[in-house]
């Protein structure tokens, strides 16, 4: 700890030494202050918004990139995550058909701010919502309405005054304030959407009212949003992924019936096979609604009071159908391995499954803040803020599996087509051949409450290289509660039992993966909507099965307690920062140096099974306490070599505490002797970061820049699996939990080229281009079961963005292309990496200002109809692949 602190302090001191080394040549130059004042940008249109973003970057002391909304109620992309993905070094994770979460420089540990205050979703820090599909479809960035946003700012190196926790960076989502534009304004828009794969229409509504009073000293701004969409996803999916053949009782033979080794190349490492491929389709109705309000009082130039609040709610009703089989515990014949020992094709004798999940998801966030800014004297400014955030979410799941009564020879070939190829030789429309094998009735809940108080003081100096000193404190309470009520009943009930026909129906979709999987049944028996919960099948239960269903009604029962936990954290931080401005010859030099002190107290309460002194197993609370304290020094130097060339240097120690859900002090167990647990004693991510950039502003709205960075990561967190003995069970469980890893290094470069070709003759003077490229590499001690080196999860080596636009006074068109390289999602049960393959996206926007009041905007998303694919260890091991189709939106906006 002390060694790393001294190393960081030394790095920070080097940066400040650049500013101070010239001694007497550092004139007490107050003229520099005037040069550093941020320009006031009037934003309208693509070019003006790009100029505003570059102005923010040019004038900031920190390493900052920003995106400015080119009009009220309209980001340049479909949502917040999509827009952030246009910034070099920012990479998008995708949910069902849209960008939904981000990594910054390969790191998912980022701070999300709303008007400067930290916000969370229901699952807490680092959460991505209650979604059992391993996406972030219902995470934080999907809850912030894009229509209310004025700008997005990404800081890639934290200053001492910044909230800690941004290992990758800090995102600040900023909304408008009423006094920014005095007078009355009303903006309303209505949009129609069309989802190509779902073949369904939707709508979006937005309204904003703003007015000022009392000689423009009081302002009110109100917004409301509402949308309804129907989404779809088709493809190959899985729950268990790939397994090690030697770990399963699955004898192998070739076409002649001769035994085949599970280790074809004899290297001592067993081959891999797909455990449970699922040909899956999702149909989802998703509704969003929300409002925001800003009250602003500025009685004079020395004082301002702002109250702002926003509420957003998402409701989803999802049907997920799939056909599949479990490939373990059955003989495989005609097997063919590839050179990587991946079982590519064969015949497995197993029962066939038809499955359906009915899921209802609700997520909401309410965040409010009261901020007070006071210029006490010409030299002293005090700012204080109190904020409160509440996020809640629930996920109600009904799962129903029919299974063929006898094992069937299923032919599979993962090397054919985008989704593999399968043959299911059974009549899945005949209830006489099927049993009800499994039903789940589950409810997941999560809630996070946060209260924060901060106060900041800036003392301006009248002379000298140091222009001001800042210091302040912040106190935060964060509490997350997570619960689960789970019913798992396995009736093995004949589907042709008298009266059971009420609960099954023929499901059919002839458009599912049209042109692929020619032998796949498109019609099969599945659960009907008469199945409303485990209690709806009470007439068919044994007493033991009824007892399992009754558990649903008992949230304090053992099963529910084992899956519930709470985590309470308190953060207290203090900081001091010195800002300087001066010159070396004709070069303006500015920056800051500071340190932040942080103390964190955490209590994690989970539940576990223990032996009772009276005999038997009981559920007992398991409480774990931990305290951390950290010093976080930082420094940045900015050198304005001339009017066009800017050089920045920066250094900081950055940390990020583990995701809240990873600190769970409990253990969730499944029937196949797998489990998922938390680890409350995880150390935080810890890194020393060095940054440098050169920015050349060669024309108005034009830049070429190169940035390089290095993060020396002392401690990081990754998913691991291990065998653990659990009291009361006959065999060990394979438990997945997060653990600490040591000594990783992340480094990379970021390129930006942007230009508006205003010097070209008409009509070509409306052309513009934005191109970014980032290269990020990491070295970790992580290896898979074959000794392959693994990167940090979420990190793509290469990421490309290209935006080409054309704009006149009334018309604009924009093409935006995004491509990211493959990246590691995590480590699977077979101790192999699970990777997302590379992904490309192309979108287009066309806008027409009919007059000063009315405009039309057309958007087309996913024009490449790209598929999102994952694999295990090597690309040959196809794990999942999904398509979403294109999305189109036409918006009419009126300004009154």
TrEMBL record:
Region Disordered: start-end pairs: 250-269
Where does the record locate the signal sequence feature? 1-27
Q: Which PANTHER family match?
A: PLUG DOMAIN-CONTAINING PROTEIN (PTHR40980), TONB-DEPENDENT RECEPTOR-LIKE BETA-BARREL DOMAIN-CONTAINING PROTEIN (PTHR40980:SF3)
Q: Give the matching Gene3D superfamilies.
A: TonB-dependent receptor, beta-barrel domain, TonB-dependent receptor, plug domain
Topology in membrane? Multi-pass membrane protein
Name of the protein this chain belongs to: TonB-dependent receptor
Q: Which residues form the TonB-dependent receptor plug domain?
A: 57-169
Instruction: Give the similarity note.
Output: Belongs to the TonB-dependent receptor family.
The record's listing under CDD domains reads: ligand_gated_channel (cd01347)
Q: What InterPro entries does the entry give?
A: Beta-barrel_TonB (IPR000531), Beta-barrel_TonB_sf (IPR036942), Plug_dom (IPR012910), Plug_dom_sf (IPR037066), TonB-dep_rcpt-like (IPR039426), TonB_rcpt_bac (IPR010104)
TonB-dependent receptor-like beta-barrel domain boundaries: 412-863
Q: Which GO terms describe its cellular component?
A: cell outer membrane
Instruction: State a single Pfam family of this protein.
Output: Plug
Which keywords has UniProt assigned to this entry? Answer: Cell outer membrane, Membrane, Receptor, Signal, TonB box, Transmembrane, Transmembrane beta strand, Transport
Localization annotation: Cell outer membrane
């Amino acid at each position: 700890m002390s060694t790393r602190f001294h190393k960081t302090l030394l790095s920070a001191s080097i940066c400040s030494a650049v500013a101070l080394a010239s001694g007497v040549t550092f004139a007490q130059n107050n003229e520099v202050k005037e040069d550093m004042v941020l320009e006031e940008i009037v934003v309208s249109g693509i070019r003006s918004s790009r100029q505003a973003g570059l102005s923010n970057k040019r004038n900031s002391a920190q390493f900052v990139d920003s995106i400015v909304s080119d009009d009220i109620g309209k980001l340049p992309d479909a949502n917040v995550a999509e827009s952030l993905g246009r910034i070099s070094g920012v990479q998008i994770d995708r949910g069902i058909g849209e960008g939904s979460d981000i990594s910054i420089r390969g790191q998912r540990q980022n701070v999300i701010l709303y008007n400067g205050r930290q916000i969370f979703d229901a699952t807490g820090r680092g959460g991505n919502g209650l979604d059992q599909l391993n996406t972030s479809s219902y995470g934080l960035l999907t809850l912030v309405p894009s229509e209310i946003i004025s700008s997005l700012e990404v800081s890639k190196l934290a200053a001492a005054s910044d909230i800690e926790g941004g290992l990758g960076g800090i995102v600040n989502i900023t909304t408008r304030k009423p006094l920014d534009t005095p007078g009355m304004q009303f903006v309303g828009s209505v949009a129609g959407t069309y989802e190509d794969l779902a073949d369904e229409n939707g709508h979006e509504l937005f309204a904003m009212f703003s007015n000022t009073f009392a000689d423009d000293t009081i302002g009110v701004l109100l917004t409301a949003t509402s949308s309804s969409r129907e989404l779809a996803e088709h493809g190959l999916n899985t729950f268990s992924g790939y397994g090690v053949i030697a770990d399963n009782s699955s004898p192998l033979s070739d076409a002649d019936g001769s035994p085949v080794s599970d280790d074809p190349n004899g290297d001592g490492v067993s081959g891999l096979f797909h455990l449970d491929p699922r040909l899956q389709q999702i149909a989802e109705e998703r509704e969003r609604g929300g409002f925001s309000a800003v009250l602003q009082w500025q009685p004079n130039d020395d004082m301002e009071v702002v109250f702002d609040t926003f509420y957003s709610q998402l409701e989803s009703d999802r049907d997920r159908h799939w056909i599949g089989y479990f490939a373990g515990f059955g003989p495989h014949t005609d097997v063919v391995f590839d050179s990587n020992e991946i079982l590519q094709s064969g015949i497995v004798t197993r029962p066939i499954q038809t499955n359906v999940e009915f899921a209802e998801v609700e997520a909401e966030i309410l965040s409010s803040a009261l901020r007070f800014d006071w210029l006490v004297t010409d030299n002293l400014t005090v700012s204080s803020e109190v904020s409160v955030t509440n996020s809640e979410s629930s996920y109600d799941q009904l799962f129903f599996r029919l299974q063929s009564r006898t094992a069937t020879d299923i032919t599979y070939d993962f090397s054919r087509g985008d989704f593999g190829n399968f043959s299911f030789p059974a009549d899945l429309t005949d209830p006489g051949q099927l049993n009800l094998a499994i039903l789940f009735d589950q409810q997941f809940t999560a809630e996070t409450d946060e209260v924060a108080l901060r106060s900041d003081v800036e003392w301006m100096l009248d002379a000298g290289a140091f222009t001001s000193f800042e210091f302040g404190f912040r106190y935060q309470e964060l509490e997350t509660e997570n619960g689960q009520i789970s019913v798992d009943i396995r009736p093995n009930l004949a589907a042709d039992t008298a009266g059971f026909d009420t609960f099954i129906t023929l499901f059919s979709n002839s458009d599912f993966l049209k042109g692929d999987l020619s032998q796949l049944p498109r019609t099969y028996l599945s659960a009907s909507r008469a199945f409303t919960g485990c209690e709806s099948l009470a007439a068919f239960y044994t007493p033991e099965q009824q007892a399992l269903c009754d558990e649903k009604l008992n949230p304090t029962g053992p099963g529910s307690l084992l899956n519930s936990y709470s985590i309470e954290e308190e953060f207290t931080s203090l900081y001091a920062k010195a800002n300087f401005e001066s010159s070396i010859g004709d070069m303006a030099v500015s920056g800051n140096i500071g340190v932040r002190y942080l103390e964190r107290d955490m209590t994690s309460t989970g539940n576990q099974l223990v032996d009772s002194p009276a005999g038997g197993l009981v559920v007992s609370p398991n409480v774990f306490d931990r305290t951390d304290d950290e010093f976080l020094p930082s420094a940045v130097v900015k050198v304005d070599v001339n009017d066009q060339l800017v050089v920045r240097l920066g250094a900081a120690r950055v940390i990020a505490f583990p995701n809240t859900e990873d600190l769970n002090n409990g253990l969730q167990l499944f029937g196949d002797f797998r489990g998922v647990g938390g680890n409350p004693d995880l150390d935080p991510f810890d890194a020393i970061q060095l940054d440098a950039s050169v920015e050349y502003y060669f024309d108005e709205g034009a830049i070429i820049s190169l940035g390089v960075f290095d993060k020396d990561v002392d401690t990081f967190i990754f998913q691991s699996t291990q065998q653990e003995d659990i009291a009361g069970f006959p065999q060990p469980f394979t438990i997945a939990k997060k653990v600490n890893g040591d000594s990783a290094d992340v480094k990379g470069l970021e390129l930006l080229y942007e230009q508006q070709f205003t010097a070209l003759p008409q009509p070509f003077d409306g052309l513009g281009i934005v191109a970014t490229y980032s290269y990020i590499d990491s070295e970790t001690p992580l290896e898979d079961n074959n000794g392959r080196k693994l990167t940090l999860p979420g990190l793509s080596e290469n990421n490309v963005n290209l935006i080409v636009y054309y704009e006149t006074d009334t018309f604009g068109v924009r093409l935006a292309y995004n491509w990211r390289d493959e990246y590691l999602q995590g480590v699977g049960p077979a101790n192999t990496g699970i990777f997302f393959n590379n992904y490309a996206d192309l979108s287009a926007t066309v806008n027409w200002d009919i007059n000063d009041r009315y405009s039309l905007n057309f958007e087309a998303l996913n024009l490449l109809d790209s598929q999102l694919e994952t694999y295990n260890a090597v690309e040959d091991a196809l794990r999942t692949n999904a398509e979403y189709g294109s999305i189109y939106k036409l918006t009419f906006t009126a300004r009154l």
